[in-house]
Amino acid sequence: MTSELETAAHPENLRRVAIEPVSRVEGHGKVTILLDDDNKVRQVRLHIVEFRGFERFIQGRPYWEVPVMVQRLCGICPVSHHLAASKALDMIVGAKLTPTAEKLRRLMHYGQILQSHALHFFHLASPDLLFGFGSDVAARNIVGVVAALPEVAKKGVLLRKYGQEVIRHTAGKRVHGTGSVPGGVNKALTIEERDLLLKDIYQMVAWSREAVAIIRGLFEQNLAEYNAFGRFDAHGMSLVAASGAMDLYHGGLRARTADGKTLFDHFDYSRYWDVVAEDVKPWSYMKFPFLKSLGADAGWYRVGPLTRVANCDFIPTPLAEHERKEFLAFDGGHPAGATLGYHWARMIELLHAAESIKDLLHDEDITGTDLMDQGKRADRGVGVIEAPRGTLIHHYRVNEDDQVIRANLIVSTTHNNQAMNEAIRQVAKQYLDGREVTEGLLNHIEVAIRCFDPCLSCATHALGQMPLEVELVEADGTVASRLSKHGDGSFQR
Amino acid sequence: MTLPLLVFGWGNPSRGDDALGPLFVERIEAGKLPGVECLTDFQLQVEHALDLHGRQRVLFVDASLEAAAPFVAARIAPAKDASFTTHAMTPQAVLQVYRDLEDEDPPPCWLLAIRGERFELGEAPGAEARQNLEAALAWAMQWLAMPAGGSDDRS
Predict the structure, then answer these.
(1) Model confidence over A294-349: pLDDT tens digits?
(2) Looking at residue B113, which CATH number applies to its domain?
(3) Which of B18, B47, B65 sits opposite A157 (nearest CB)?
(4) How far is A36 from chain B, CA to nearest CA, in Å?
(5) Distance CA A11, CA A32 (A)
(6) A88 near A473, Cβ under 8 Å?
(7) Searching chain A, which residue's CA lies closest to the CA of residue B120?
(8) How confident is the model over A400-414, as pLDDT tens digits?
(9) Domain count, chain B
(10) Domain span at residue A434?
(11) Model ipTM?
């Protein structure tokens, strides 16, 4: 399934368009598009221009520090790293989690899913969806959403806030939480905290249902465009429970081909390297994972909400399961294979997260105090979790002095590397071929990337960053035209 | 009960000088000053607009590559800028969200931008950045003692 647009035959003869950095995604991404003299797209690549060196950051540290310090790898989903590391280190300390510990971790995780998905849909993606991909850039932002649909914007903020409160009560703090530790958790949920969260959860479930209805309505209004936008066939991989249910916290790996054939199922993730390998390409710092049985060229795959909703046999909460069935049946199942289907699937998961939080808060174990376990020490541990953006793998080796001597992380966005490249190539072919490049057209490329909600970097930031610059470069290297986006959102040629 | 003064610093403690915001908050918090609440996060986002409710004054604190050393402090106003489209908003954009959601002006807010130089993962804050932090803390003591409605810009 490797696209013919990955590498052009004679790139030296082509014009180059660069979108750098990609906005409304986290970190530093760059898209380059090579056009020929007729403005036909000949090559499209999503580059990751920052090398992060995660593993070096972790190696040499005592293992018990790892669940806290890995949160600093990423300011967007620190809880996912916190929990994936904890799961890996559970293996190191030989722990079998107590029911309370596992449920508290699940509660924390669903809080993270809720706040992350709410932010992405209501504030990062909805401006494109509500106003159109090529609409006036001055209105295509959350301020425009607030002005047009103030109640929608407010619900997005409050859903996000609620998810953060779940994290605060389970992790101990709003950020840099220490709640999850190797072998369990170190903080119980008090009755008062549980009741505080229970007070608002029914409202969160109701608003999550409304969010599913919003994205469904947008599909109904724009069906042909949404189904076709950046569409491509892909294999998929996710965790599923032993029952086949969606399980975002724990399970075995399931991979299916684009035509629905199961490649492996309930595979023990502690030996993930038997089924997944990583390729490198000279033009990107980010690796390209692939399913080993299919090889590097044909084995790339998709992870995240779209794959998870389609890959599981059912969702174990009733409202989300109803919406999953509706999604898969809608228009003959076409949205479930569409790149924009990510948004619909993400809102089904938002609803599932809200329902799961409700159920956990009603579970007697959630306020238990039996929090820790420990068993036979091991020197290797693997933790896998379904983070908001997809499958997240943490793998550590620890020496007899309790130091981490090897670490390997495969983050969700890395799994989706090739899939994001495929999406932007499809969009470039659909919308850019033979046309002059405008901001609205370039935003179509960004819309495709944002479907994956990628997290390309970590929480580094400083005031004044995040410009957007596009250059058209002739074959001889001269800049033919330049499009710049300033800090106030205005554009200048 | 909502405390009248909020000090909100953000940044990643493990990315060199990006730690200046959280370190600033840590130092203010250690002083246990009456009427002052301290909050920190990796970056600013929409929900932080809700932290502004009921405050008399708010001080946002971040590391900055652009501010003159040792720091720049200035009153800020709501503004729609490009950060609305990212995972990391500016404080001015957070104020705009407050105004749009609440249909009222936010409380008086200042931005304290402390000069930083290096933001690499795994690095500790540099010596110059730490000196800038001390200067910013000294200024903040005056700001915290300021009567309601006062002004103390330094830029």
Answers:
(1) 999 999 999 999 999 999 999 999 999 999 999 999 999 999 999 999 999 999 99
(2) 3.40.50.1450
(3) B47
(4) 31
(5) 12
(6) no
(7) A460
(8) 999 999 999 888 888
(9) 1
(10) 11-50+424-492
(11) 0.87
